[in-house]
Each structure stands twice: as C-alpha cells, then as structure tokens.
Design a protein that fits this description.
single chain; mainly beta
C-alpha cells in the first residue's frame, strides 16, 4: 500500500429512516490512535480513542447535503513495525463502503489522517 492519509469522497444516502453507521479501525496491529468525528451541521462532534464500531451518524433522510469529517492521529507504538493504517467503513446508506488508508512512519512517530465524506441523497 502506498502512503495515503487523505480521503475525499461521496456517500450516497436515500429518503429512508435507516441509520447510517461508521466504523473506524486503527492499525496496523499494535498501533494506537485517536479520532475526531464531526458533522458540519454541528449535530455530531465526537472524540474516540482506539477503534470505533458501528457508530450511528444519523438517518439517511437527514444526511443529504451534509459533510462528515474525520481526523485521526495514529501513533507508532508497535515494536516490530512502523506501518499505520485506518480502515473506514460506512453502512446503512445505498451501499456498504470500505476505504483503507495507510502510511509508513519513522519509529515512534505519528501519522495524521484526514477524511471528508459528503452525503448525497438520491
């Protein structure tokens, strides 16, 4: 995997009340991280340490036109490697999406990941 710490994409939602969820997986094995997840309308502002599983972002019908930003800092705390990675999973919208980002860092350094997800309602 080449070094990639930025993601800007669109996630399609619909007119239903089904909840869109977000999962953030901090890696690789042995690495630690913290994330800040924000929705641009101010309705969501969450800090998380480590992995985040099936976190509810909101109903499909309420997300169209909004932007979700994720800022994650992953620190190299593993003794046997210097690879950091962030896996982002979105489900509940039109389709399931998974994005994998990663970066090799120097011993004991950190990588900052920035993701911008625009919700488009059809």
């Amino acid at each position: 995997m080449s070094d990639n710490t930025n993601l800007s994409t669109t996630y399609v939602v619909n007119k239903t009340t089904k909840i869109v969820t977000l999962t953030l997986l901090i890696g690789a094995s042995g690495q630690t991280g913290n994330s800040l997840v924000r929705l641009d309308d101010g309705s969501l502002n969450v800090e998380a340490s480590g992995d985040l599983f099936d976190f509810e972002i909101g109903a499909n019908k309420d997300l169209g036109g909004k932007k979700l930003t994720i800022t994650t800092t992953i620190s190299d705390t593993a003794k046997d490697h210097n690879h950091t990675e962030l896996i982002i999973r979105l489900k509940g919208g039109a389709v399931f999406r998974e994005y994998a980002l990663g970066k090799e860092v120097n011993e004991n350094e950190s990588a900052v990941y920035f993701c911008e997800l625009n919700f488009f309602k059809f």
